Amino acid sequence: MRSQCSLESATLHGVEAQAVTVEVVVGGGMPGMAIVGMADTAIQEARERVRAAVGAAGFSMPGSKIVVNLAPSYVRKAGSGFDLPIALGILAATGQVDPEALRGRLFVGELSLDGAVRPVRGTLAFGICAHGQGLALVGAPESEEVPLADLEQLSLRSLGALQGPEPFSPRVRRRGGAGAAATSSAPDFADVAGHEVAKRALQIAAAGGHGLLMMGPPGSGKTMLASRLGSILPPLTEGETLEAAVVHSVAGEPVEGLLAGVRPFRHPHHSATAAGLVGGGNPLRPGEASLAHCGVLFLDELAEFKPSVLQALRQPLESGTVALTRAEGSVAFPARFMLVAATNPCACGYFGDEEHPCTCTVPQVNAYQGKIGGPLMDRIDLQLDVRRLPPGSVLDSGGGQGSAELREGVLRGRAFASWRRREEGCASSRRGPGRPQAVIEACRLDGEGRAFMESMAKAYGMSGRALVSALGVARTIADMEEAPAVGAAHLAEALGLRLREGVGCR
Q1: Is the pLDDT of residue 144 over 50?
Q2: Cα torsion 161, 167, 173, 177: sign
Q3: What is the pTM of this model?
Q4: Taking Cα atoms as reference points, which of 7, 39, 41, 43 lies closest to residue 23?
Q5: Which has fewest Cβ within 10 Å: 126, 258, 283, 498?
Q6: Which pLDDT score, from 0 to 100, does residue 151 have?
Q7: Residues 6+ apart with CB under 8 A from 400
Q8: Domain boundaries, the chain
Q9: Do 245 and 146 meet the contact criterion of CB atoms below 8 Å apart?
Q10: How far is CA 151 from CA 99, 119, 128, 493, 502, in A?
Q11: Count of other CB atoms within 10 angstroms of residue 428
C-alpha cells in the first residue's frame, strides 16, 4: 500500500533561507530509505538519525521502501535541519501522526538518537522565510527567538512529545529585543589620558561610519583606543538589528547582544585566512567582514596580515557586500562595516619614536608599510600617527575625555546628517555608485573651498577616491557642528586627519 505526505522546510543559501518542500512516499519496493533532491552528506546521514530517533520515541519505522524528495530538485540543500521534517513526514505518511497538525508550519531541526530536537544554525533566516510564506516556524526549544512580532514561533522538545495532547509549545517572547536600549560592555574613553586627537578621530569615524587607521610604536595606546569605540556608537536600529543578527545566526554565532541593540565588534587575529575574513568554505559561510555588518571590524597589527588577505577587503569596502562565486553558484553576504586598523610603522616598531631609535632602513620601512597596499590605504578615510604618551600622562589615566561626551557628538552628527539627507532627498547610505557626486553636492563648497581642495590634492598627489573621501569626512565634521555647508575649518581638519606624517604619508 502506497502512502505519502508533504510538509515545508528550508535550506540556507548565503544569509537567506530558501523554501523547500519535503515529500515523503512510503511503500512499493524493497525496504530502505532514499533521499533525493541534491542533498549533501549531512542530509544523507539523516537516514540513520531518523531511524534511531523514531524508534527511541516509541514509533515504528515502516518495513517498506521510503523515498524522500527535497523540492525543488535543482537547488542544493545542506545541513542537518532536515532531520525533523523527514521524520515527521514518515510518521504522517504512515498514519502515526495526524497530517493536519503539520499544515501551515515550517519545520527545521536536527534529531538526536534519543529523539530530542536540537537547534540548527540560521534560525533567524528560517523565521524570515516562514514569515514570508505566512507559516509558523517550528524548531528546538533552544532555538533563537526571531524578532518578528507577527511570526508564530513554536518549539518541539522531542519526537516522543508528538504522542502527547499538545506537542508544539509556543515560544515565550522575552521583553525588549530589537529596539531595546543597548548596553555596550566596551570600556570608557575616560580611562585614556591624552590622545585627544585620536579620540577626536574616533568620534568623527563613529559619526560618519568612516574607516580609520592608527599607526604608532608599541605601547602607544592604539588597541586601547580602538577597544573603546563601541562605547560611543549608537545602538542598532530595528532594521540593522535583524540584518546583523541573521548573519550571526547563519554563522552559528550568538545573537543576544545584537538583539539588545549592541553593534558587533569583530577582532580577528592577523593569521586569519581570506576565507575567514571575507567568507568561504563548503557550504559557503560568512567571514569576519560580514559578522561585522553594521558594526566594527578591528584589524590589529594590520601589516602582519597576508597582503592577499587584506586586498580581499577592497571590494567589500566599496560596495558593502562580499560577493563569492563558486561552482555551485554565487552568494552575496552583507558587509557594511567600519574598518578600524592599527599597525606599527615598521618591523622593529619604533620608526618616528622619540624615545627608542629605529633599527630599520628607509627601504625596510617602506616595504613594511607597503604590505598594507596602496589601494587599501586609499580606501581608509582617516589615517593618523599615534605617539607614545609621556609617563606623567600615563599616570594621570582616568581623567581624560569620557565616552558620554564623545557619544553626544556622535549622536548629534548622525541626527543632523539624517535630517540633511531627508531635506536633500538623498539616500542614507555612504556607499554606492552615486556616492562621489552626492558627497560633493552635500558639501556645498564655495569658490574658496573648492580652490583649497584642488591645491591640496595636487600638492599631495591625492587620487579621486582620496579627494572624495576627505570631503566625506569634512561633511561629517560639519554635521557634528550642525552646519549646512562645509567650511574651510572642516576641510582643514579632514585633511589633517588624512595626510599622515613621515614615510608613506600619502
Answers
A1: yes
A2: positive
A3: 0.90
A4: 7
A5: 283
A6: 95
A7: 189, 190, 191, 192, 193, 194, 195, 196, 199
A8: 3-170, 189-496
A9: no
A10: 22, 18, 8, 49, 57
A11: 8
Cα Rg, the chain, nearest whole Å = 27
Enumerate residues 6+ apart whose C-beta is below 8 A from 398. 190, 191, 193
pLDDT tens string 404-433: 999 999 999 999 999 999 888 765 444 444
Euclidean distance between CA atoms 109 and 107, whole angstroms: 7
The helix (H) or strand (E) run that includes residue 489 is helix 488-496
Q: For the chain, what's the residue count?
A: 506
Residue whose C-alpha cell is 546628517: 417
CA distance 162 to 417: 55
CB 247 within 8 A of CB 334: yes
What is 38-83 written as a DSSP string? SB-HHHHTHHHHHHHHHHHTT----SSEEEEEEESTTS-B-SGGGH
Reply yes or no on domain 3-170 having CATH 2.40.40.20. Answer: no
- 108: left (phi > 0), else alpha (psi -120 to 50), else beta? beta
Distances (CA, A) of 340 to 54, 209, 432: 51, 10, 20
Nearest to 120 by CA among 87, 145, 143: 143
d(CA 110, CA 89): 14
pLDDT digits (tens, 9 = 90+) for 357-372: 999 999 999 999 999 9
Contacts of 137 (CB under 8 A, 6+ apart): 105, 106, 108, 123, 126, 127, 130, 131, 146, 151, 152, 153, 154
Per-residue confidence band for 184, with pLDDT thresholds at 50, 70 and 90? low
For residue 484, cis peptide bond before it (omega within 30 degrees of 0): no
CATH number of 189-496: 3.40.50.300
Q: Give yes or no for a contact between 276 and 268, defined as CB atoms under 8 angstroms apart.
A: yes
Eight-class DSSP state of 285: B
Ordered DSSP codes for 362-410: HHHHHHHHHTT-HHHHHT-SEEEE-PPPPHHHHHTTT-S--HHHHHHHH
Q: Kindly state the helix (H) or strand (E) to which residue 169 belongs, with its residue range.
A: strand 168-170
| Residue 361: exposure state from Cβ atoms within 10 A (0-12, 13-18, ≥19) | exposed
DSSP 324-343: EEETTEEEEEE---EEEEEE
Q: Give the Cα separation of 467 and 384 in Å (integer).
A: 17
